[in-house]
Amino acid sequence: MIRGSIPYMEKPLNILSVDDEFRVAHALAFALSNPARKLTLAFSADEALAKVNNHSEPFDLIILDHKMPQVSGIEFVQRLREVQFGGKIIVLSAHLTGENRRAYTELKVDTMLTKPFDVHELRDLVDSLALA
């Protein structure tokens, strides 16, 4: 795929971004904005789970931070699995230990990116997951 190209999709990729840091969440929204992607923001795991459970259209992809207050990314993914979330999951974090990576792998997370990450790499990854 050519960098910056947008895969053809009949409807926009429905993405939920979960990050408790306001600036990071909005930077992701800016980085991923284009007509092929519809992005919804959540600033806590509880808010995100409510959106997963109550959203009119299912999310195709959830991008989440590992380190959040009250609920870790691992706990959040465990809850997603309990509610049978069938979309793709990307974990972004500067705090991934070997133990955390193993836990995410066991939970069948699609990929993990270390912060800081390359915006182009994230876009390419999102687009490739959309085609998978």
Characterize this entry briefly.
With 132 residues, this protein is of the alpha/beta class. Helices cover 40% and strands 20% of the residues.
Portion of residues in beta strands equals 15-25%
Going by CATH, the architecture would be 3-Layer(aba) Sandwich
Helix-and-strand structural type: alpha/beta
As for the number of domains, it is 1
- How would you spell out the order of helices and strands? EHEHEHEHEH
Radius of gyration: 14 Å
Number of strands: 5
* CATH superfamily label: Response regulator
Bulk shape: globular
Gap from first CA to last CA? 13 Å
At the first level of CATH, the class is Alpha Beta
**Strand arrangement in the largest pleated sheet:** 2-1-3-4-5
Give the uncertain stretches in residue-range form.
1-7
Global mean pLDDT: 88
The biggest sheet, with number of strands, parallel, antiparallel or mixed sense and barrel status, is: 5 strands, parallel
Enter the CATH topology name. Answer: Rossmann fold
Account of the 3D structure:
It is a single chain. By secondary structure, the protein is of the alpha/beta class. Helices cover 40% and strands 20% of the residues. The chain has one domain (13-131): Response regulator (Rossmann fold, 3-Layer(aba) Sandwich). It has five helices and five strands, in the order E-H-E-H-E-H-E-H-E-H. A five-stranded parallel sheet has the order 2-1-3-4-5, with helices on both faces. Helix 3 (73-82) links the parallel strand 3 (61-65) and strand 4. The protein is globular, with a radius of gyration of 14 Å. The two termini are 13 Å apart. Residues 1-7 have low confidence and may be disordered.
